[in-house]
């Protein structure tokens, strides 16, 4: 696709949702639709290998950062091999059981270099990653949520739940989420990337524990409001048990705007087969001054996941080979 100017994109999120958007955007880097790609990753995980390493070494949880790096590996032999290596989880019955190679590599470089951003850049160079991976903040964060109806006998009682895993798996209705500390030190490189980007992609993913947390880092939230980039919000394919049970697509947007009412959205991207009330979604998107893009972006295997190739095609259609600045 011919372009008049270079384009850069920043994708924000965490876990499998960010993995999907980065895997799609990586294709746009490969075919030269994008020149620069940066991932900004949620860092509040307290479970699994990440939680164990965080507890033992006092570091940022490396798991979502590792997944983002794996998503940016190329489709050649080098990229596929390293993606498999960093994603490999140890089996066995000893203390190493459940740890992931990439998590250990990242934490080892953090110890050696003392600089989380520089260390992630070195891992990216080793993997041949087609983009840069940055944490949304450089200080450890815990997540809390006000949850209604945790106790079956008290459906209206609001309880505070602490920990990303606990919030993501709560049996109640999430009323609001917060970070502890409430104003974590942002990654300045992430803020700069958002401010200088042509496109910013937010979502898909666990809405309250992977997507919305970016809006709770004050400097990063302000950058998302102030940037002249076109902001693309990618909606989930289905409600998520624990976080968003019973949510319609427009409810996800409402939750987003509760945390950042001054957010300026360029496009809302949703799977055409997952939207049961297109008129309601179109009305909600229009009230936000955004455009709605309904496309076939779901996998064909029946799983609730985005197809990377279809998602890449949708991104390319939205971005259109023209920068969002000045639109």
Task: Give an overview of the whole structure.
With 327 residues, this protein is an alpha/beta fold. The protein has two domains: 8-139 and 180-319, Rossmann fold (3-Layer(aba) Sandwich); 142-179, no CATH class. It has 13 helices and ten strands. The strands form two sheets. A seven-stranded parallel sheet has the order 3-2-1-7-8-9-10, sandwiched between helices. It has a three-stranded antiparallel sheet with strand order 5-4-6. Helix 1 (15-30) crosses helix 13 and helix 8 runs parallel beside helix 10 (218-226). The longest helix has 16 residues, at 15-30. The radius of gyration is 19 Å and the shape is globular.
User: Which fold name is given in CATH as the topology of the largest domain?
Assistant: Rossmann fold
| Helix-strand string | EHEHHHHHEEEHEHEHHEHEHEH
DSSP, total strands: 10
SS field, number of helical segments: 13
What is the straight-line distance between the termini?
19 Å
Return the structural class: alpha/beta
Unreliable segments of 5+ consecutive residues: 321-327
Q: Any idea what the radius of gyration is? A: 19 Å
Question: Which helices and strands appear, and what pairs or packs with what?
Answer:
Blueprint: E1 8-13, H1 15-30, E2 36-41, H2 48-57, H3 63-71, H4 77-87, H5 101-113, H6 116-127, E3 132-135, E4 142-148, E5 158-162, H7 164-168, E6 173-180, H8 188-196, E7 199-202, H9 207-211, H10 218-226, E8 230-234, H11 249-259, E9 267-271, H12 278-287, E10 291-295, H13 308-319
Parallel strand pairs: 1-2, 1-7, 2-3, 7-8, 8-9, 9-10
Antiparallel strand pairs: 4-5, 4-6
């Amino acid at each position: 696709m011919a372009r008049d100017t270079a384009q850069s994109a920043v994708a924000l999120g965490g876990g499998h949702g960010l993995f999907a958007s980065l895997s799609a955007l990586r294709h746009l880097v490969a075919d030269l639709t994008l020149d620069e790609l940066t991932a900004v990753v949620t860092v509040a995980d307290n479970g699994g290998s990440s939680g164990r390493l965080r507890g033992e070494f006092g570091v940022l949880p490396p798991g979502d950062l590792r997944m983002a790096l794996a998503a940016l590996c190329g489709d050649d032999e080098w990229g596929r091999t390293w993606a498999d290596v960093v994603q490999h989880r140890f089996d066995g019955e000893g203390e190493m059981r459940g740890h992931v190679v990439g998590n250990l590599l990242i934490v080892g470089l953090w110890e050696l270099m003392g600089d989380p951003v520089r260390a992630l850049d070195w891992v990216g160079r080793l993997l041949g990653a087609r983009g840069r991976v940055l944490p949304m903040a450089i200080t450890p964060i815990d997540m809390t949520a006000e949850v209604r109806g945790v106790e079956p006998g008290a459906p209206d009682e609001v309880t505070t739940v602490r920990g990303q895993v606990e919030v993501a798996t709560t049996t109640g209705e999430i009323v609001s989420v917060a970070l502890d500390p409430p104003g974590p030190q942002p990654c300045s490189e992430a803020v700069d990337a958002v401010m200088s980007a042509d496109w910013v992609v937010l979502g898909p993913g666990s809405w309250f524990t992977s997507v919305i947390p970016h809006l709770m880092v004050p400097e990063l939230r302000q950058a998302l409001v102030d940037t002249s980039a076109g902001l693309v919000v990618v909606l989930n394919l289905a409600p998520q048990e624990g976080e968003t049970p019973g949510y319609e697509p427009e409810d996800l947007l409402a939750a987003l705007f509760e945390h950042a009412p001054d957010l300026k959205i360029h496009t809302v991207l949703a799977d055409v087969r997952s939207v049961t009330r297109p008129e309601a979604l179109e009305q909600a998107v229009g009230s936000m001054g955004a455009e709605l893009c309904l496309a076939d972006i779901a996998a064909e295997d029946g799983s609730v996941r985005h197809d990377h190739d279809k998602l890449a095609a949708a991104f390319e259609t939205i971005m259109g080979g023209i920068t969002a600045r000045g639109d």
